[in-house]
């Protein structure tokens, strides 16, 4: 059976070429074609001898995701539904914002963490994505020269830090100059708070951005909204985030989804301001996009603005992010990995 090498980092490719009796640097050549030029046909790798190309073709393949569905909305947001080889499905979302074009990537099929407001959490956990399935979401969405992806966020389906090794391999491929060469500063890993893995990621020295999906500034409420907090509480996570900020030299981002009458009061804003005091950070406020079956509602505009105005300047940098794509169930927390009707407000 042919070996699928998509998602192999440079070292894995060098090892593979060596196993085939070739010089290790050939692995870097293959990486260049596969990741920089998106070439999946070995016969088109023209700086490699025709004998070696035939050998590669005989032993290896470069796998692809199958596009099952693609939807877009009036904001230019596009949602891709991908079929995986075992019949599972995942989603990625492309979000335009001025000069930026951000790709939101999934890391797992479903998610084991059961955050109470999230559609992905409702479907439960099926499996981790391998590094090829992660990287292919980028390679297959980034198809046009005029419309290049400028930022990558791991905010799709799943908790990336619970798929740590595959995440790491994918990050190496994104960042490596000999592979995709996407700037580490333009990549953000988002986590619901797996404190030991935040520390570990800090020590890898990759210097990617880190976003912490906070959503509640006290343990009592966070325990309810995000059960992972019962395992790693705010104190554990804040320590890990400070460690990350120190080692990476970068501010961490706190993502705070505002949910009506749950976490959108001025009292909540006060707790949040106090909590982040002394941490190099920025805070992204996001209006909740309702998900069927959760019982949660979007906040009132007045409450959102009052929350933001209370928070800033008490907290260092605060932005109110408009979450795009809700009409195609592509907004934050709405991904299910299934076909959805393209109706406004259908979720
Ligand atoms: S918010 Fe993230 S971590 Fe929580 S259930 Fe949804 S996908 Fe999983």
Helix and strand arrangement:
Blueprint: E1 3-4, H1 10-19, H2 25-36, H3 50-59, E2 60-61, E3 66-72, E4 78-83, E5 89-97, E6 100-104, E7 108-110, H4 119-123, E8 125-128, H5 131-141, E9 151-154, H6 164-175, E10 187-191, H7 195-204, E11 209-213, H8 219-225, H9 234-248, E12 252-258, H10 266-276, E13 281-287, H11 301-314, E14 318-321
Parallel strand pairs: 1-2, 6-9, 9-10, 10-11, 11-12, 12-13, 13-14
Antiparallel strand pairs: 3-4, 4-5, 5-6, 7-8
Helix pairs in contact: 1-2, 5-6, 7-9, 10-11
The site of iron/sulfur cluster (SF4) has 12 residues, from helix 4.
Keywords:
single chain, 347 residues, alpha/beta, DNA polymerase, domain 1, TIM Barrel, 10-stranded mixed sheet, two-stranded parallel sheet, 11 helices, elongated, binds iron/sulfur cluster
What does it look like?
By secondary structure, this protein is an alpha/beta fold. The chain has 2 domains: 3-61, DNA polymerase, domain 1 (Orthogonal Bundle); 66-328, Aldolase class I (TIM Barrel), CATH 3.20.20. 34% of the residues lie in helices and 20% in strands. It has helices at residues 10-19, 25-36, 50-59, 119-123, 131-141, 164-175, 195-204, 219-225, 234-248, 266-276, 301-314; strands at residues 3-4, 60-61, 66-72, 78-83, 89-97, 100-104, 108-110, 125-128, 151-154, 187-191, 209-213, 252-258, 281-287, 318-321. The strands form 3 sheets. The protein has a 10-stranded mixed sheet. The chain has a two-stranded parallel sheet with strand order 1-2. Helix 7 packs parallel to helix 9 and helix 10 (266-276) runs parallel beside helix 11 (301-314). The termini are far apart. Mean pLDDT is 93; it is low at 340-347. Iron/sulfur cluster is lined by residues 111, 113-115, 118, 120-121, 157-159, 192, 333.
